[in-house]
Amino acid sequence: MGFWTRVRLPSGPLNGNVQMAKWMVSAKRADFDKIAKEYNIDPVIARIIRNRDVMEDTDIRLFLNGTPDDMHDPRLLYDMEKAVAFVLSKIEAKAAIRIIGDYDIDGVCATYILLRGLKECGAVADTVIPHRIKDGYGLNDNLIEDARNDGIDTIITCDNGIAAYPQIEYANSLGMTVVITDHHEVPYEILPDGSSKEILPPAYAVIDPGQEKCPYPFKGICGAVVAYKFIQVLFEEYDKKTAGSCKISAETGKASAGRKAVLNELLEFAAFATVGDVMELLDENRIIVRHGLKSMENTVNPGLKALIEVNGLVGKKLSAYHIGFVLGPCINATGRLDSAAKALELLSCAEFAKAVTLAGELKELNDSRKEMTLKGVEQAAKLIENGTYKNDRVLVIFLTDCHESLAGIIAGRLKDRYHRPVFVLTKAEDGVKGSGRSIEAYNMYEQMSLCKELFTRYGGHKMAAGLSMPEENVEKFRLALNNNCRLSDEDFEEKILIDVPMPLSYVTIELVKQLERLEPFGNGNPKPVFAHKNAHLVRGAILGKNANVGKYCVKDDSGREYEMIFFGDIEKWHEFLDEHFGKEKREKLYSSYINDDITISIIYYPDINSYMGKEHLQIVMRDYTI
Fold this sequence. Notes:
Layout: E1 2-8, E2 19-25, H1 32-39, H2 43-51, H3 57-65, H4 80-92, E3 96-100, H5 105-120, E4 124-128, H6 141-149, E5 154-158, H7 165-173, E6 177-181, E7 188-190, E8 196-198, E9 205-207, H8 223-245, H9 249-276, H10 283-296, H11 302-310, H12 320-337, H13 341-348, H14 352-386, E10 395-398, H15 407-418, E11 422-428, E12 431-437, H16 444-449, E13 457-460, E14 464-469, H17 474-484, E15 494-498, E16 500-501, H18 509-515, E17 530-543, E18 549-555, E19 561-566, H19 570-581, H20 583-589, E20 598-611, E21 614-625
Parallel strand pairs: 2-15, 3-4, 3-5, 5-6, 6-9, 10-11, 16-17, 19-21
Antiparallel strand pairs: 1-2, 7-8, 11-12, 12-14, 13-14, 17-18, 17-20, 18-19, 20-21
């Protein structure tokens, strides 16, 4: 890998030094011309595919042309057939089944998938989604006691349960049976010889691709996909039983076709959750999301249709971006500021008019959440830049008035802004709660384990964590993390990976349309970016009601002109121009005069701007340097 090193103005006066960032060019090797010819794609597209570590012919075919038929067999999930047979027996016996989910996007979608699928087979089923603040994550003794008091025979978990050993043991003691569908990491203990041993809960069946004995070939599916695959097998087995007992085959065929239509609808929610839970868009996740997004554009689900309408997306091509940043946060906001049961009510709503009202309420909640998040980020930034944190390598910010459900979002925003590990702590009923978000070089969970005596509860992984502690331990926590921190200055450098150094002159509308074949973009399959040296800024304008979008005419060394748009931080962009070219030249850029004395290198993504039925190329600038 080669790289350019560039100077960036610091995002906050943490250490008083100018921060450096690297533009790194991916240099993975392959016969790009051969791949391009075989799959009828541009060599640039072949290079991008190789950069995603897709190498074998079968994998390239699936990456470009995979269909739902290419998804893995759900019966490969360990305990799947055992669980389905048991649940079918409970459906036949009319035993009461309760689904216990989670309050985030994945948990809500998984709960809906199971409820819709079970009821399609005639189950007596209901749902409970824990309250984030009152109940916390996953199963607890109160939920189990409530189930017993309600006459529940069987509990099915989704997006939780794999770590609920004592709770499931308690349910067993009360005469209930638990089936787990989950995707989280299986707890383990370290044995004296240094090896590890899984701690599987004592449920009747445990469906989780992460367990060692599970032969499922792709471990990276979310809880809603596990639930979807459970319903796939449930429908297959239910149809077999129905066919065996039904005398009129035409009725059996009609019912089976109806369940296929239900599966098509449920695939949309498997896709929704895959994006919302930030799973890697690789392997079958890519197939699920690609086809789920396409189906969503004409969804028959009144709740999802209403959510799309209130967010102004009717008639638009939906992308992973819309799930991650527009529709998904509306579902998540209910679990953060209210009860996720309202989001489940929306997805289950049969009347479109009522669904529109519910969707509007969810959007309002999300708008409120966005305002509260912005306020929290601004408050934290002031503490960081004006307080005692400027020399800290690990930021621990105590926001006493912040809603505890927003701590993780705010920590993520601060991590992106300052490119260092961040914990945001808030006041809770029983002390302090907090969430952390990390950078690649810092193992957050490992470092927390070095001071675990400070916590009443903690957990997480390398990139994210959660904790509870007494308030008097907040400063001890901050000092412990920073005293133990071994991050170097290089670890704080921003690194931007360039797929292909490519002059603007290579970009065509046909190439942009080929780039669309690489969608969906997201975690594990980032939107590709390119680099061009010597882009001459000719003229510009500031657009948008908040004056936060820049539109420019740029030309290359041949004199050919291109339209370029910039959606990033306009203030930082102007500081950069003033620093390197002077305020006068920057102001002249936005005058009516033609300029030719501001020359920069850019990282960009090419796009197509459609207006009045006409298409023309547009360059979206992602980053810049001299």
